[in-house]
Design goal:
Radius of gyration: 16 Å
Largest sheet: 8 strands, antiparallel
Strand content: 15-25%
Strand order of the largest sheet: 1-2-3-4-5-6-7-8
Number of helices: 7
Structural class: alpha+beta
């Protein structure tokens, strides 16, 4: 489940997984895969945070094309990307099965074409401002603690958490890169991992 995360630019915004069977993440109306996000973080932690970089994402401009997550979970059939994914990968019937699946990256070839039906491919401009201690993910501006919150979210596997605390290798690799990073956005983060 996406959770509210604090930004300096937009107040609380939704960030996170919206279906336990896929590793697709949303940041309000921007969508990208956790495997890509972790690869970006690994690069930033290893090579240094870029002053400016463009990363490929998908953006859904109309709220109706995103769909309603809560209605999808309740099984209502209505239009939008999130309901379309939930038709393929329904909400688990048993509460104990509501866990983020570490194999979610394996269904990208199913989920990405659905995303492309509703979204446009765009670049998100990422900027790190060391002087101000800010991280810009597109139009959303995070301070270090806000940026850490979204990294923590991916580490945990969101609200339901990873099934049996089993994380995908790309998440483990991201945390290892953060632990070893000498760069300012990641310093002091390794204590929690």
């Amino acid at each position: 489940m996406p959770l509210g995360h604090r930004t300096l630019s937009h107040g609380i915004v939704a960030f996170g997984f919206f279906n336990v069977d896929t590793d697709c993440l949303l940041l309000n109306n921007s969508f990208f895969f956790a495997s890509d996000f972790c690869a970006w973080v690994i690069r930033w932690a290893t090579d240094g945070p870029p002053q400016e970089e463009r990363v490929p994402i998908h953006v859904i401009h109309e709220q109706a094309d995103i769909g309603n997550l809560h209605w999808s979970i309740q099984g209502y059939d209505h239009p939008g990307f999130i309901p379309a994914v939930h038709r393929v990968y329904p909400f688990p019937a048993a509460p104990e099965d509501f866990k983020q699946q570490p194999e979610g990256w394996q269904v990208r070839d199913v989920v990405e074409p659905i995303l492309q039906e509703y979204a446009t491919a765009e670049d998100m401009v990422v900027r790190f401002d060391e002087d101000k201690g800010l991280v810009h993910l597109g139009e959303y501006i995070f301070d270090r603690s806000g940026f850490r919150e979204i990294l923590d979210y991916v580490w945990r596997g969101g609200m339901p958490m990873w099934r049996a605390n089993e994380r995908p290798q790309y998440v483990l690799d991201m945390i290892e890169a953060i632990r070893n990073s000498p760069y300012w956005p990641f310093q002091g983060m390794c204590r929690a991992y």
